[in-house]
Amino acid sequence: MGKHKTPMLDELEKGPWPSFVSDIKQQAEKGKQVLKEAPDDLLGVLELSFEDRVTHWKHGGIVGVFGYGGGIIGRYCDQPQKFPGVAHFHTVRVNQPASKFYTTKFLRSMCDLWESHGSGLTNMHGSTGDLVLLGTTTDHLEPLFFDMTHEMNQDLGGSGSNLRTPACCLGRARCQFACYDTQEACYQMTMEYQDELHRPAFPYKFKFKFDGCPNGCVASIARSDMSVIGLWRDNIRIDQAAVKAYVGGELKPNAGAHASRDWGKFDINKEVINLCPTGCMAWDGSKLDINDKECVKCMHCLNTMPRALRIGVDTGAAVLFGAKAPILEGAQMSTLTVPFMKVEAPFEELKELIEKVWDWWMEEGKNRERLGELIQRKSWQEFLRVIEKDPDPRMVDEPRSNPYIFWKEEEVEGGWTRDINAYREKHPR
Amino acid sequence: MPYDPSDPLKDRITDIGPRYYKEFVPPVIEKNYGKWLYHDILEPGVLVHVSETGDEVYTVRVGGCRLMSVEHIREICDIADKHCGGYVRFTTRNNIEFMVDGKDKLKPLVDDLKSRKFPAGSNKFPIGGTGAGVTNIVHTQGWAHCHTPAIDASGVVKAVMDGVYDDFGSMRLPAPVRISLACCLNMCGAVHCSDIAILGIHRKPPMIDSEWIDKLCELPLAIAACPTAAIKPAKTASGLKALEVNADRCMFCGNCYTMCAAMPLADDVGSGVAILVGGKLSNRMSKPKFSKVVIPFIPNEPPRWPTTVEAVKNILDVYAKDAKKYERLGDWAARIGWERFFEKTNLPFSHHLIDDYRFAYTTWRQSTQAKF
Ligand code: HEM
Ligand code: HEM
Ligand code: SF4
Ligand code: SF4
Ligand code: SF4
Ligand code: SF4
After folding, report:
1. Selected residue of B7, B32, B69 to mutate for chain A interface (largest A Cβ count, 10 A)
2. Is B232 a residue whose pLDDT tops 80?
3. Rounded to whole angstroms, how far apart are CA atoms A405 and A408?
4. Are the beta carbons of B285 and A55 separated by less than 8 Å?
């Protein structure tokens, strides 16, 4: 029996999906967290919100560790007398290792560390990617940070108007589609920009995310100011024998991704050739042909016949800029900016590009203006000038349909200064 | 030396970043890094990846709660120590992946995972989340930790995942379905490109704590925070500086409250759920797409949000029956036409669903093409 009665939350212990309520209860009973009452009181305040249908958390004040402007989110409960264990309940963002592999040794020492400095509750992981330690008091922050850096060789992540903790897909660790080393890129870029990550100096938040291919498993195109998405420029590698094996039914299409339903026999024309968005594939009954020059690397054929088709060997990435959630100007996805770039350690070209972008954004961006909004306000043309890239038809879905072109004076023969008197000599009033 | 509060800067270590990922990958991954040839989903939640060296790695993906205790993490570690050489991985969608390097090690792992339940009965480690099914719901903080939510997060997710549980553990859908939840318009989870998005929205403008607002907030910052310029300076009867909201211009985004604690807007009946569908972010066949609002409001119904759960299940079932193989939910809706989508899902189409924010015109139909 917990400290508070939680009849509504108890309803969430039912059903097959793992119950976070049962989990918090087990921490309340068995855990050795220094904030003894925290799990019980979190259940208590959550139950109260379930009754009231309104949150009971207040704004965080500014809390943090000395010398850092990010990494900790302040949080206070608006019913501290009832729930003293969560009266102060700050979040600590811990920078996750690239693509979130862990040794149990590391995780266990993180658990011990967190029990000695906090609530024993976490988020595995927050939606940006951090390992989130959920709930502690201000006096625990410095000792926690000290022990984390000294004993675990581990730093905090980002929050506030800074570089947010970068994230990447699984990539080469276990995926055959990775066109560049997303984990290495993520790690090295994170290390290069530690100052930007810990000490907010930007107009607003900034996110990098690294997807190894256009399948986009970390959703970079939707939620990062700079999305790096793996691509190849040359030809899809075809194993004709394996294509035949798919057609003949010896291999399961889609790596078995549709196996729980009978979709009938695999039909390469219907399921691959005719679904290719560019119509650049042909099957003559014995040989698969791909006109690679017209392929847009959508991944459909590779996803469908992974044992027959492989990404090319001239691999790299596209770089896109400007995605953000709807606040304020409406949602935006990233816009294709550099259609292809080699992305190899030490990632100099990528760093040069991002530094140009940051210089401009820090100079021109208004408070709380995301990069994507600044580009809209200033124009794509201005953005291209800043990053020193030439316009490219691959940057647009179609050319503009309005002719309201902002010509520059230097683009027009003879400039804009003209003599009205000379005009009047030919065209009297 | 432990931390010394009298000398906080002594021996301080900063800017060391995360641990290097290669310290944390199992040997079979280290050895075959970048050499993977192909993968197969052996059954829902169980994958094999085959390397050009001939090595294989078997992965069992299980659902996890994002809100997780260290007790539970320790149990995950126990399993990883027993079966996986002390390595484990978390995915971007709060799933957990246990990996073994031989087929013989798979069954004991799967049996072990299936056997573990919480005392009240829920599974600790349900296996699934692969292929043309539903995977775990990425979500945000909700009433468990944030100050601006319109809905809870973990509670709604638990109820919806119970409702679509069979589709987590199977692959009967035409294509993958990604469900996401964000508890306010800030969309920390960036749900705006999901097949099905559950979004918390407010419907009442902020209240002004007039006697306090000038003491608690920087008034110009609150005014500047409003995207629709709905906030203007005002004076209270007693002559204090305060603010006033032009309610007709308010789109209930909560930005003002983020800037100023004296402008709360959450409300027991005003706040609730909106459902968006048809977003995607892979480039497979069609380009990435935003999700579109198809249900403007469902009241908050703790503890199990039955109307929201039913709405998600209904959309999922109609899609599963009607779409062609490979067709993502948004591609299906675009092909059949949104008029058909509303007809088939039996959802009412109301004026709330027609865009009237910026760029609204881009979503209006400028054509005679219509279905009857
Ligand atoms: C057959 C084609 C595909 C393959 C082989 C594939 C492979 C993978 C792999 C290896 C992961 C684990 C990576 C990680 O969590 O970082 C993953 C996760 C994910 N993939 Fe894909 N992917 C494919 C298609 C797609 C498509 C079409 C989407 C569409 C949006 C997508 C979105 C995601 C997402 C959101 C995750 C996170 C899932 C989770 O963590 O449970 N993938 N995929
Ligand atoms: C104006 C826009 C936004 C505001 C004002 C905002 C505000 C906040 C606040 C107050 C929290 C703290 C919640 C807590 O108490 O733990 C939070 C958490 C978080 N936000 Fe945002 N947010 C915004 C947009 C976003 C977006 C677009 C993303 C990601 C794409 C994001 C990612 C996160 C993450 C990862 C967390 C940590 C906890 C979680 O995963 O929910 N935020 N945000
Ligand atoms: S984004 Fe591409 S390379 Fe990365 S894990 Fe997903 S499918 Fe693999
Ligand atoms: S990757 Fe897409 S565009 Fe390229 S050949 Fe395959 S299906 Fe066609
Ligand atoms: S989506 Fe909104 S309510 Fe939810 S955690 Fe983010 S800021 Fe808080
Ligand atoms: S909720 Fe948003 S739109 Fe309404 S007053 Fe506040 S900032 Fe303005």
Report:
1. B69
2. yes
3. 9
4. no
Contact A77, A166 (CB under 8 A): no
Given pLDDT bands bounded at 50, 70 and 90, which one contains residue B190?
low
- Asked whether the bond before A150 is cis by omega within 30 degrees of 0, the reply is no
- DSSP secondary structure string, B303-366? TT-HHHHHHHHHHHHHHHHHSPTT--HHHHHHHH-HHHHHHHHTPPP-GGGS--STTGGGGS--
How far B24 CA sits from the closest chain A CA (Å)?
5
Cis bond before residue A39 (omega within 30° of 0): no
Instruction: Say whether B227 and A328 touch across the interface (CB within 8 A).
Output: yes
Q: In whole angstroms, what is the distance from residue A259 CA to residue A270 CA?
A: 18
Asked if residue A291 lies in contact with residue A280, where contact means CB atoms within 8 angstroms, the answer is yes
- For A367, residues 6+ apart whose C-beta sits below 8 A from its C-beta are A203, A204, B224
Matching residue, tokens 């306010």: B184
What is residue B138's DSSP assignment?
A: B
Residue A229 and residue A246: Cα distance in Å, rounded? 28
Of B21, B73, B148, nearest to A98 by CB-CB distance is: B21
Q: How many CA atoms lie within 13 A of B169 on its CB side?
A: 12
Helix (H, G, I), strand (E, B) or coil at B185: coil
B369: confidence class by pLDDT, cuts 50, 70, 90: confident
Order of all β-strands in the sheet with B36-43? A101-103, B87-90, B95-100, B56-63, B46-51, B36-43
Residue B359 has pLDDT above 80, yes or no: no
Helix (H) / strand (E) containing A225: none
Q: Residues A293, A297, A303, A308: what is their CA dihedral angle, to the nearest 10 degrees?
A: 30
Query: What ipTM describes this predicted complex?
Result: 0.95
Q: What is the pLDDT of residue B191?
A: 82
